[in-house]
Amino acid sequence: METLREYWPFLVPLIIAQLTLAITAFVHVIRHPSYRFGNKVFWIPVVLFISIIGPVVYFVFGRGDAE
Amino acid sequence: MNHFAVFFKKELKESVKTYKLLLLGIVFLILGIMNPLVAKLTPDLLASFLPEGMSITIPEPSSLDSWAQFFKNIQQMGLIVVLLVFSGVLTNELSRGTLVLLLTKGLPRQTVILAKYAAMLVLWTMSVAISHVVTWVYTVYLFPDNLSQNLFFATFCLWFFGALLLAVLLLGGTLVSSSYGSLLVTGGLVVLLNLLNLFSALKEYNPLALATKNMDVVSGAVAVSELYPQIGITVALILATLGLTVLLFRRKLV
């Protein structure tokens, strides 16, 4: 608990940044159901549970071309 | 020039629409927060892994450790993410055919290359700046010592190295017409620079030093002026790469 209190100036922005990334990717996966490969069932856990790398890989390789 | 401004603006708008800006911004923000945190926590982590009753002396972390993390992370994670994000920079539009329309309407080909490079540089500068500022703020907060010097110059060197890689990525895109191909060309350059580093005669002029000597600059082991030759070479290489890319792209059938 002591450590947590000491490090909140780091943890709060860190968690907010990671959540923003994960949620943006999640919303995109749901709203654009055409992917270069994979399907919804594959991409949802990837973007939600693999922090940083998951959303990056989705936007770079998985995102379909349709706007 | 008007063509350039219009196409440059279109590139920037597109990087917002394709989430490039958001991705880079957040990834580099996270890296920026992580650097000082990892430096601070490493001794505690090491100590907690040691078996009961054993003790080693771990030096107190300083601002130098925090910046060592910064340069390590930007160079590995940061540069890789940037190159991945930009890997389809030319090839996506060529394969979709959207660029052909603009070219047949009279958009000069060198404008395409230069505007794309400028847009990539803007995003890369933003990313490095975010990470640098965040790391700096937290480092000052956690380690209020005055051990680190020339921070701006050290980061500038790494930024320059990234600028070279981005120019080569663009060249790769013109050469091989696939995003994996342009990544491969850029990776090839990094391997080549590493090999060249084996020859001590070339070391003094190898641009790779801009990405490896950063900590020596920060700790004061290497003077700022010692890196001037490499910066000169890198400027020349970037200009040559851009020139070659424009030449090749003019002749390319799209």
Give the beta-strand count of chain A: 0
The shape of chain B, in one word, is elongated
- Percent of sequence in beta strands of chain A: under 5%
Rg of chain B, please?
A: 21 Å
Largest interface in this structure: A-B, 19 and 21 residues
Through-space gap between termini of chain B: 23 Å
User: What profile does the largest beta sheet of chain A have?
Assistant: none
Total E-strand runs of chain B: 0
Proportion in helices of chain A:
over 70%
Uncertain runs of chain B are none
Structure notes:
- The complex is a heterodimer of chains A (67) and B (254).
- The longest helix of chain A is centred in the first third of the chain and has 30 residues, at 2-31.
- Chain A has 67 residues and is mainly α.
- Helix content of chain A is 75%, strand content 0%.
- Chain A is elongated.
- By secondary structure, chain B is mostly helical.
- Chain B has one domain.
- Chain B has helices spanning 2-17, 20-49, 63-86, 91-96, 98-104, 109-142, 151-176, 179-196, 200-203, 209-212, 214-219, 228-251.
- The chains are: A mainly alpha (67), B mainly alpha (254).
- Chain A binds chain B through residues 7, 9-10, 13-14, 17-18, 20-21, 24, 28, 52, 55-56, 59-60, 63, 65, 67, and chain B through 17-20, 22-23, 26-27, 29-30, 33-34, 36-37, 81, 84-85, 87, 96, 138, 141.
